[in-house]
Amino acid sequence: MVPGAAGWCCLVFWLPVCVAAHGFRIHDYLYFQVLSPGDIRYIFTATPAKDFGGIFHTRYEQIHLVPAEPPEACGELSNGFFIQDQIALVERGGCSFLSKTRVVQEHGGRAVIISDNAVDNDSFYVEMIQDSTQRTADIPALFLLGRDGYMIRRSLEQHGLPWAIISIPVNVTSIPTFELLQPPWTFW
User: Fold this and answer.
1) pLDDT score for 35
2) How many angstroms separate the CA atoms of 65 and 67, rounded?
3) With pLDDT > 90 as the criterion, what percentage of the chain qualifies?
4) DSSP labels for the chain?
């Protein structure tokens, strides 16, 4: 069976609008592109937190994606100075998603991308929900597949770089399909 135009739209772009048109909801997606280092210059897919955190009011053409130290970001960050006015990349585990988001916010981060700690996860998005503490966070919080987070960190380590340069959010509907460079290890 060959999918119709709406089916191809969902297959290629995974837009919430297409999903909603079919009467079910999987996830809302937000895209960002790594600009540097060049070996991971791909468009990555992330999902926003379900019931906490802010939204992107601005498109950042070039902003640093700084891996947090320690990676789980459950307390004081040894590289918090570098996260100020940038976006932090943290790993799942050790504390709640909301706690991680608040730690990055307290260090002046503009957003947090939380990658799964299962580095072989290349297809399952976790729904990030608020913990039971009644706390809030104002910055955007996104969930990234474990394989994607691992590959970004690995590239930075291989190049001896303290951060990646990204563009976020990216509107994939304005990119021709043949130019939509998604990570080769992630197949839809």
Assistant:
1) 98
2) 7
3) 73
4) ----HHHHHHHHH--HHHHHHTT------EEEEEEESGGG--EEEEEE-SSSS----S-EEEEEEEE-SSTT-SS--TTHHHHTTSEEEEES-SS-HHHHHHHHHHTT-SEEEEE-S-TT-SS--------TT-----S-EEEE-HHHHHHHHHHHHHHT-S-EEEEES--GGGS-GGG----TT---
- Residue ranges in the chain modelled with pLDDT below 50: 1-26
39-42-43 Cα angle (round to 5):
165
Per-residue model confidence (pLDDT) at position 184: 87
Residue 10: other Cβ atoms inside 10 A: 18
Nearest to 112 by CA among 161, 79, 73: 73
Domain ranges of the chain: 30-179
- Give the CATH number of domain 30-179: 3.50.30.30
What local confidence, expressed as pLDDT, does residue 134 receive? 87
Predicted confidence at residue 177, as pLDDT, reads: 78
According to the model, what pLDDT value does residue 185 have? 84
Q: pTM of this prediction? A: 0.84
The predicted pLDDT at position 42 comes to 96
